[in-house]
User: What shape does this take?
Amino acid sequence: MSDRVALSDEIAGALEGGGPAVALETSVLGQGLPEPWNRRAAEAMDAAVRSTGAVPAWTWTAEGRIRIGATADDLDRLMTRRPAKVARRDLPAALGAGGLGATTVSATLWAAYRTGIEVAATGGIGGVHPGTGDVSADLVELARTPATLVCSGPKSILDPVATLERLEELGVGVLGYGTDRLPFFIVRDSGLPLDQRADHPKEVAAAASARRDLEIASTLVVCLPCPEEVALPADLVAEAAARCRDRHRTVTGKAVTPALLACLAEETGQASLRANLALLEGNALLAGEVAGALT
Ligand code: PSU
Ligand code: MN
Assistant: This one.
């Protein structure tokens, strides 16, 4: 396997020295956000992770290998050259074909675990789409890969009740960070109660190290609400998401989430993009702090 996973010099050095690293998915840059928002997100997340003393382990694929660590040029390619969206199941074909790929949470967690990186950050996790039977591969990956993932809850285009129930069924721990309720991506509060909460990176690290000691092979999902200044009202987003689902009824497969996110941006006059950018930065920062507290 080692030949198939190429670490950048920076990541290899950090891991060798036992330093903290945060795995970052790149599908949010390649498919989730349009230009120039993806560029801003890449810069903000990279800087946020570094400000904590951790290294950003951007994950992607090129030339038949999973790449961990990216230069500014690599990130630029991922944002301008229309990479394939690579979930876990796509890894073999993506590496076989050799092209440029942007990894989702599922492929990123898979690769991070096998590289020895325990902490990851994203914006909103995938989950259960209402009414279509479409369930993100993120959920099954969360159930079988040990990690700590900082996010802002399921994306606002999903069914939060069904997604939370599925996480429970799959044995995936969900921790509210500074909240007792499940955040809902660009909406701060889904209204759904959470059983577990943390208010400090050390508390997250304590749970993560207990998970490690128990060898529980599932991810601890840490949910940090979107910053208040840019978060959107729940009813506004629910109405926009319903219109988007209606407008994109015929879209299927991996195109669904990017189409709905683009539509949400349109329907909210780009307010969803501002919120998405801010929550990505906050999640990257918290993930860096957690990674630091764990080492
Ligand atoms: N978070 C964001 N924007 C995104 C994603 C997460 O703020 O675009 C990506 C992640 O890569 C996640 C993927 O794994 O969306 C889920 O896609 P799907 O619903 O097709 O599984
Ligand atoms: Mn899907």
